[in-house]
């Protein structure tokens, strides 16, 4: 198959900011793309060759879309997996596979998968309904505090809650869920692993993530992580072990905890380009978006070393602002050395909504970190 | 003016491969774009917000298009300059200005401009018609060999011919032209200068160009140029002098000769992103395309240092192949470290047609140069 011709069609489920960044690379390689997204104003609508509006969770919609393309990938996990399975049977190449996605979509299944494959992860319990948790607490089968996670459709800032006292359970949806032991970690780390159909595997360097304490969203991603070489090596090994267990094709972003005694525990994974890899656009020889494409098209994987140190700052809507977005002081941050804003193009802001990200690169990661702090203190995502 | 909002519209005259690479950056900044191009299959057609098909040399077409936008720029010089002048009078911001473009569009005017501004350039003569050249040769006012250049609408590989003997004049169009003294140069160099409306100026490092002997097209662009620091400094100074004389806004790519005695002579300029700056996408802190946008939108200019050494190889159609394009061995070059192909998306190849480019980056420029040679010897642009 020659991908560099208009006979080949790549389908992408989801046309958000990740899809938009994938599309820069399909355009660079002149690969024909079709995108399906529920919103008629999806950021990917321009820059793909064919755009379709439709529900990613609807079986018929996804099957009909998938039949138009040769290879199908995703930019979001919440898609109809039965449809992917049908398409696979019909001969469409689907990466990540329906099997990989089925395991990842459900956090309970994901955790059981780690246990089955001897992948280190935080202790957890599984509940068919949130309402069962109180009983487990009464029985002594569960202890406060813990992290509650909805089994399905969870993502950063949603579907996850730290439960410190009984009251915290109130208002949670009564759905399938897991409870996880709180990990008093030193660092949150991530490694993005790429694997192509031929089995070639490459990892990006270990990154360190700093979370916003309230919004539970990544605030800084720092590459390389400022950790000991031995810990970095261990994180790489655990990420590779996880990747091997999934036998995925495409990217697998593996989020991990570095515990107080320097053990590595897998938190969760995403089988696609990930927020923890945005700095690769400016910092790496190969961006995560290009690498995802190389992997799913079974092309040789690109070099994953860094050219320079890179830091990513998420641009999220400021508290107390809702409405037409304004990027206050964006010109000021563009005066700073090595600073690149990425604006996703969402017209409306609201508190903690991801509106874009800013990459800061410098040969010295500590200089980059200082500039990142300045960036964070200068730009503000507000409304008119 | 807040560019980061949908009220602002940027117009681009020309929707070719340069426009396509500008559009990645408008999308990154979420800037609304309108593109005018004669071809309904222009590479920029997808990824801009509004696409218009029309003749860039037609006054009415360009005026009508320009009235839709707030700021107008170009990706090609051959546009109707009277239309730009009208638009400027009507209040549209046009960068480069009609004045800059008028001087650059005509090579005779461009050369006179260098003389007027004490910018070093090769000796030349101006002719209203090519047919006048024979008389000048007979009179002794001109000596063989020389370089013939059409005054208007010339570009690499077209409108330029080395005249070694009288016969070589045959078949040339009988148009306004210049003849230039042949410069036995050591190197062809280029510097891209960016200038915004506030007068902020930044230069990219000096690059070295190797031309294909037959096609008169750039074969390698090497950044940084492998020249003495004093020569590099002189080239930077001449480029800045040229930029200052034009008082342009946006990019100015200044192509220069380094003579045998290490003088710098300006060859020609382009007031836009340029082939000699493609490697900035992968090698520089700020790409030339982002820098052009920053300049014309009067934003702070980005850092122009290189992260790593960069080499650009043009992908041109192989001799003896015309028809539906095939990129033979593209997968082999993608196995090499730090290699990124850019495929422009033209469906038909013909000998020496620019079909794309490949960037090779490495911390060591000599390693990059070796890989570039491998790339050039491996990939072949042929037809089915």
From TrEMBL, chains A, B:
Lineage of the organism: Bacteria, Pseudomonadati, Bacteroidota, Flavobacteriia, Flavobacteriales
UniProt keyword annotations, A-Z: ATP-binding, Decarboxylase, Ligase, Lyase, Nucleotide-binding, Purine biosynthesis
Gene Ontology annotations of biological process type: 'de novo' IMP biosynthetic process
Annotated ATP-grasp domain residues: 111-297
Organism name: Mangrovimonas spongiae
Family: Belongs to the PurK/PurT family.
Function according to Swiss-Prot or TrEMBL: Catalyzes the ATP-dependent conversion of 5-aminoimidazole ribonucleotide (AIR) and HCO(3)- to N5-carboxyaminoimidazole ribonucleotide (N5-CAIR).
Protein name per the record: N5-carboxyaminoimidazole ribonucleotide synthase
One Gene Ontology term, aspect cellular component: cytosol
Pathway: Purine metabolism; IMP biosynthesis via de novo pathway; 5-amino-1-(5-phospho-D-ribosyl)imidazole-4-carboxylate from 5-amino-1-(5-phospho-D-ribosyl)imidazole (N5-CAIR route): step 1/2
Subunit (UniProt): Homodimer.
Reaction catalysed by this enzyme: 5-amino-1-(5-phospho-beta-D-ribosyl)imidazole + hydrogencarbonate + ATP = 5-carboxyamino-1-(5-phospho-D-ribosyl)imidazole + ADP + phosphate + 2 H(+)
SUPFAM superfamilies xrefs: Glutathione synthetase ATP-binding domain-like (SSF56059), PreATP-grasp domain (SSF52440), Rudiment single hybrid motif (SSF51246)
Molecular function via GO: 5-(carboxyamino)imidazole ribonucleotide synthase activity; ATP binding; metal ion binding; phosphoribosylaminoimidazole carboxylase activity
EC number(s) recorded for this UniProt protein: 6.3.4.18
Enzyme class: ligase
Residues that, per the record, bind ATP: 107, 149, 180-183, 188, 267-268
């Amino acid at each position: 198959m020659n991908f560099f011709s208009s006979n080949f069609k790549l389908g992408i489920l989801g046309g958000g900011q990740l899809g938009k960044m994938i599309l820069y690379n399909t355009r660079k390689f002149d690969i024909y793309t079709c995108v399906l997204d529920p919103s008629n104003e999806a950021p990917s609508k321009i820059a793909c060759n064919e755009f379709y509006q439709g529900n990613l969770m609807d079986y018929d919609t996804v099957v009909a879309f998938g039949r138009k393309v040769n290879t199908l990938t995703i930019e979001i996990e919440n898609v109809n997996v039965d449809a992917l399975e049908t398409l696979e049977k019909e001969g469409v190449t689907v990466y990540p596979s329906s099997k990989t996605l089925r395991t990842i979509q459900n956090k309970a299944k994901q955790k059981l998968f780690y246990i089955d494959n001897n992948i280190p992860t935080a202790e957890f319990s599984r509940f068919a309904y949130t309402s069962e948790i109180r009983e487990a607490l009464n029985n002594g089968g569960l202890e406060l505090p813990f992290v509650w996670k909805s089994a399905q459709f969870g993502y950063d800032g949603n579907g996850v809650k730290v439960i410190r006292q009984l009251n915290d359970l109130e208002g949670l949806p009564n759905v399938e869920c897991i409870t996880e032991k709180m990990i008093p970690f030193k660092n949150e780390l991530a490694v993005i692993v790429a694997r192509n159909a031929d089995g070639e595997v490459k990892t990006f360097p270990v990154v360190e993530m700093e979370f916003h304490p309230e919004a539970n969203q990544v605030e800084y991603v720092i590459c390389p992580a400022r950790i000991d070489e031995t810990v970095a090596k261990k994180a790489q090994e655990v990420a590779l072990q996880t990747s091997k267990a999934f036998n995925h094709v495409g990217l697998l972003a593996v989020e991990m905890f570095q515990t107080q005694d320097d053990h590595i525990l897998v938190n969760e994974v995403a089988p696609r380009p990930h927020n923890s890899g945005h700095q690769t656009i400016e910092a790496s020889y190969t961006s995560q978006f290009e690498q995802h494409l190389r992997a799913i098209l079974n092309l040789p994987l690109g070099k994953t070393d860094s050219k320079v140190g890179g830091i990513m700052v998420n641009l999220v809507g400021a508290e107390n602002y809702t409405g037409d977005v304004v990027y206050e002081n964006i010109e000021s941050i563009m005066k700073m050395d090595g600073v690149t804003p990425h604006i996703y193009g969402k017209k409306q802001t609201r508190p903690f909504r991801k509106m874009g990200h800013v990459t800061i690169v410098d040969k010295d990661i500590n200089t980059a970190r200082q500039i990142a702090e300045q960036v964070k203190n200068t730009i503000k995502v507000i409304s008119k």
